[in-house]
Amino acid sequence: MYERHEQWMLRYDKVYKDPQEREKRFKIFQDNVNYIEAFNNANNKPYKLGINQFSDLTNEEFIAPRNKFKGHMCSSITRTTTFKYENVTAVPSSIDWRQKGAVTPIKDQGQCGCCWAFSAVAATEGIHKLSTGKLCLLVCPITPISWPSFLYMHDYNNLGPTEIIHILKHLKF
Fold this sequence. Notes:
Residues 5-62 form the Cathepsin propeptide inhibitor domain. By secondary structure, the protein is mainly α.
């Protein structure tokens, strides 16, 4: 398992501040790998878990920076009626969009609090594939044109300091 952890550290460019931190992270990594392997071997789910850049984090550490939703900010939004399909027949009980080639690779939103945007883009990518037969990634580079949106997100705590610094480094005014 040590060798596996070493390979993982190289792949994800992980460096720990001292041997104690490294040992702590190794134990968490080991626990997570054991959980992932047990889960995948149980084979009772339609998906598999995998080792990724977060494999040396506890659940609490992983969730903490990603759980910044401010529900009170949405309390004044007026709810609309739910959209209902009419005259729809012969709908299958399930559809696997992967089999239709309408699913793009997973994107990492980092600590950005805009999961709704990632979901909307993924849905649009899938619809584009079903409509045109071509699967393409919809990506938008950060440019000075997007600056007002960026400031809004920053002001409402939807970006962390790491993302802000990274984005500011790449902006050219």
